[in-house]
Amino acid sequence: MKKGDILYHEQFKFSNGGISDKLLVILNTPQPTNDPYLIITTTSQSINKSQIPGCNLKESLFFIKANHDFFNKDTWLQFYQLYELDFKKLLKTKFDGLVKISGSLKEQTINEVINCIRKSDDVSEYYLKLIGKRGQS
């Protein structure tokens, strides 16, 4: 599993305790024993969301039009809340059949997503370190 991979997680646990099927995008390729995976959630629910393709910094969203890259529906990547997934736990979840790699974003798209996230004031320095310094993505 690497940066840009799209995971289908059958029992993703949100920070509020809710559990749901979810498509997730991996933002980094971590060192297995040192760092967690940093992931971003997706949604196809368009209510009150900009439909301007690409970086929507004010809303902390990145919009991908249907059939532009992997997603067959208009999809928003929501970086107002990023998640860390422990490397070993994620592998176990994958082997248990709860996580599948569904596809991968084009390199240009994942780099645009990461560059958008880097511009946000809402993303911690720690998360920025996990996705790498400018030019290392």
Describe the structure in your own words.
Strand 1 (5-13) and strand 2 (19-26) form a beta hairpin. The relative contact order is 0.22. The protein has helices at residues 87-95, 107-119, 125-131; strands at residues 5-13, 19-26, 37-43, 54-56, 61-64, 75-85, 99-104. Strands 4-5-6-3-2-1-7 form a 7-stranded antiparallel β-sheet, with helices on both faces. The longest helix is centred in the last third of the chain and has 13 residues, at 107-119. It starts with a strand and ends in a 6-residue tail after the last helix. It is α+β, with helices and mostly antiparallel strands. The model has no long low-confidence stretch (mean pLDDT 91). The protein has a single domain (5-131), classed as Roll (SH3 type barrels), CATH 2.30.30. Helix content is 21%, strand content 35%.
Question: What's this model, at a glance?
Answer:
This protein is 21% helix and 35% strand. The chain has 137 residues and is α+β, with helices and mostly antiparallel strands.
Layout of secondary structure:
Elements: E1 5-13, E2 19-26, E3 37-43, E4 54-56, E5 61-64, E6 75-85, H1 87-95, E7 99-104, H2 107-119, H3 125-131
Antiparallel strand pairs: 1-2, 1-7, 2-3, 3-6, 4-5, 5-6
Average pLDDT confidence is 91
Architecture (CATH level 2) name: Roll
**Could you name the ranges where pLDDT drops below 50 across 5 or more consecutive residues?**
none
Cα-atom radius of gyration: 14 Å
- How far the N terminus sits from the C terminus, by CA atoms, comes to 15 Å
Counting DSSP H or I runs of 4 or more residues, the number of helices is 3
Overall 3D geometry? globular
Number of strands: 7
Mind summarizing the main beta sheet?
7 strands, antiparallel
Q: How many domains is the backbone divided into?
A: 1
User: Could you name the CATH topology?
Assistant: SH3 type barrels
Sheet-strand content, in percent, reads 35-45%
Question: What is the strand arrangement across the widest sheet?
Answer: 4-5-6-3-2-1-7
H/E element order: EEEEEEHEHH
Name the CATH class. Answer: Mainly Beta
Helix content: 10-25%
Q: Assign the structural class, choosing from mainly alpha, mainly beta, alpha/beta, alpha+beta, or little secondary structure.
A: alpha+beta
